[in-house]
Amino acid sequence: MAAKITEKERHIFIENMFAKLENVTVESIVSSRIPLKHNGRHLLGLCPFHNDTHLGSFLVTPDRGIWKCFACGDGYAGNGIKFISLYDGIDYLQAAFKVALEKGIITYDEYSLYSQRQNYSESYIKKIAEKYDKEKKSSAKPLKMADIAIRHNVYHVIKDACQLSDQHMSQLKEERKLSDERINADYFTFPCLSWEKNNVIKKIREEYPEYTDEVLMTVPGFYYDRTKKKIAFYAVKGIGMLIHDVYGRVAAIQIRRDTIKEGQQRYIWFSSSFAPYEPDKYIGGTGCGSPRDILYPANTDRSILCITEGRFKSEVIRDFGNVTISLQGVGSQKGLDSDITEIMKELPIKSVFLMFDADSFGNTAVFLQLEKLICMLQEKFPSLKIRVVCWRKEYGKGIDDLYHNGKIKTVKYIESDLYVKTYRSVLSKILKSYETESLSDLKKLSLEEKKSFEDNLQQAEESIFLQ
Ligand SMILES: [Zn+2]
What we know:
17 helices; six-stranded mixed beta sheet; 18 strands; DNA Primase, Chain A; zinc; 3 domains; alpha+beta; zinc-finger; DNA primase DNAg catalytic core, N-terminal domain; Rossmann fold; DNA binding; binds zinc ion
C-alpha cells in the first residue's frame, strides 16, 4: 500500500532530487556500472547492450552530459539516469531514485518512502523522462544533414577523383576476393594528402557550382574551417567505400582504416559531427546517422534477403546472388521495415536469412535484439520464411570467413520460431543453475561468472543447433 504522503509532497521531493542530480556527472554514473577510458573529449567503454569487443562504439561525452552507443543505435543514448534505467532494467524514475541514493542525494529512508512504497503511473514516469533526459546545451547546433541527392553527388565526385592504391587494390582482390566490377563500383583510396583534398574540392566546384559553402558544410564529413577560411573535410588513411540506400543512391561513405591504435575502430563513418563542438574553429559539420548498407546482386532471380552486419560480409552474400542489408548492429532496426517493403516491390523475396556473427550466441543482449528483429519481421511480413543462420565459432566469426575457408556447407538454417523457443529454454535452464530466473540478475554476477555463463550458453546453443 502507498505510504501517506500527498501528491504535492511527492512532486516537490522529486523536483528537488532532479535539481541535485543535475550536478552528478554522466561519467560518474556510467562508470559506476562499467569501466571507462579517457579518449580526447570522450570516454570510451565496452557497450553492455550489444556484443561489444572493441572500444569505439560506446561513447560518453561529459561536456554534453550524455552517452551513446553507435552500434546499438536508436534508444541507446541519453543521460546518466537513462543509462542506469537500461542497465539495471528499471524505469526512468526508479533509476533516478537509485542514482540519487547511490550518490548520497537522498537517504535510504527517503528512497524507501518515495521509491519503493509509492506507485507512479506510466504517464507520469514518461513525463519525467521527457523533461529530464536531455543533453546539456552544446556550443553550436548541428546543421541539418544535406539531403540524399546532394550527398549522392558529392560522394560520387570524391570516389571518381580518387585512384585506388596498389596496396588497397590487392587487399580487395586477394584478401577480400572482390571482383573488378565491385571494386570499380564502390571502392577508392580515401584522399588524405592536401593536394588530393584540394583536387576533390575543385572537382566538386566544377561539377556542382551550385553547391555553395553553406550547402557543403551540411554534407557529413565536410565543415568550414575558420582558420584556413575555406571548406574542408575530415580524412583518415584507408579504403573509402560508398554505402548505398535501398534505391541505390549513395547515402554515406564508410572508411576502413589502414592502421588502428588502441581504442580506435577499424571501420568509421565519413562524418563531421565533431565540428559543432568547436564553434571557434569550425562552422557547420554534421553526422551521418546510422545508415543501412544495401547491396543488390547482378542477377535478381533469387528470392532470398540476407540481413547481416558489415560491408565485407554483404559482399560475399551478394556474390552468391542474394540481396543483403547490412545493419550498424543488430539493434539498429528503425526504418528497416520500410526498406524491406521497397525491396519486395521489386524482387520476389520469399525468405529472410539472419547472418550475425557466431560469437553472438552467448550474448543475451544480442539475443534480445535478434528476438525483437524476428518479431518485427514476423509481424510485418507474415509471408516471409525467416531463418537464423548458425555455424561453429571455430570455423570463423563472420559468415565471410566461412565463404573464404570452404566451411560454408557446415552452416545450419534454423527456423526462427524454433530458434527463439530453443534459445529461451536453454537460457532459462542455465539461469536456474545460477539460481536466478531473471536476466537482470545477471548483472550481479562477477565478470568471471558472467564469462562462464556466456560460455555455457554458447556451448549449449552450439550443441543443440549444430550437431
Ligand atoms: Zn551497443
